[in-house]
Amino acid sequence: MKKLFVCALAVAMVFAFTAPTMAADWNFYGSARFATFSNDVDTKVARVESDTDTQWALQGNARIGATVSAGDVGGGFEYGSGPNLRKLYGTWNFGAGTLLIGQTYTPIAEFYSNQVVAADNDLLFQGMAYHGRRGQIRLTFGGFDVAFVTPVTQLTLANTAGGTTVSTAVGVDTTLPQIVLSYKFATDMFSVKPYLGWASYDFTTGIPTATSQESVDSLVYGLGGKVNFGPAYVAANFMGGTNLGNMGIAMATASNAIVDASGKIVDNDSMGYAAVVGFKASDMFTIEGGYGYVSSEVQYIGAKQEDTAFSYYINCVINMAPGVFVVPEFGIISGDDIKNAGGVIGTTEQTETTYFGAKWQINF
After folding, report:
1. Cis ω on the peptide bond leading into residue 83 (within 30° of 0)?
2. Whole-angstrom distance, CA of residue 292 vs CA of residue 126
3. Given this model, what pLDDT does residue 320 score?
4. Domain range for residue 304?
5. In the chain, what is the straight-line distance between the N-terminal and C-terminal CA atoms, in Å?
6. In this predicted model, which residue has the larger pLDDT, 273 or 259?
7. Is residue 103 assigned to a domain?
């Protein structure tokens, strides 16, 4: 009798826990993405010839995942080809708004560009705003989002004293999560999205003593938007801020704060802008071009360092069947000289990559 009761209880528990899942609506999806590019890399160093390489490989952002909904509760997951976890989150619509917990894109992520090189670069490191897929608790009320994001502390601050570096892996104290706000207003013709983010943590610099502590504060602000003119469209983004690298904002320039020779944290001011123009010639062809630029500047004892980078491209999306398309593209991803006044950090030249090729993609 006791064994029968245990079996009956086990069966009841299985049905109790699986019933919501059985009633849920699961939608699985996948995206196979393959890059075929010729990359001509110029290191801009005397007596060193440029290097041309062929990329013929599955992109790291190829993915498979699912979204699920069961009444007011939902969620989703997504894995990349690493394999790596890209998304894992749950949502709850409580009437006045929606609560999200887990890992997904933060409110500072708007994909206006369709640049496909470098695993869909999308000008994200050259002027478009991108905060990544991060752990967060987020509230959404219509077009307004407020997210409390996992702090970023495992970054390295450049140390101008002796050219060494100081790791943040030890001696970091965090009190608050990152706070990110955004509001998106959209109609059929246009959309506009202002955003704001803040983060702070205390950091043991080790200069001049092993217990010297400073505070690293980050601030990002910006505005993005898109306008549709029938088959044509224009989109742009502008952003600025302080110590964006320490917050995890994507930048092609060195945007972290710096520890100067006295052990003080010196802020790094950054800005960026990007714009794209596109035209849908037909259901089969869409042409797009874009340009993005970022710069960072830090001033410390006796010196000023400026770092800039840019990228531009032109491509054409060729749809061969529903979910099947290829994107031929030509462009340049470049970094300008790192210019210094005072010379504490020597002037360097970054690489410039001229590329052409195509991304092949099948969504299923």
Report:
1. yes
2. 5
3. 98
4. 29-35+58-311
5. 51
6. 273
7. yes
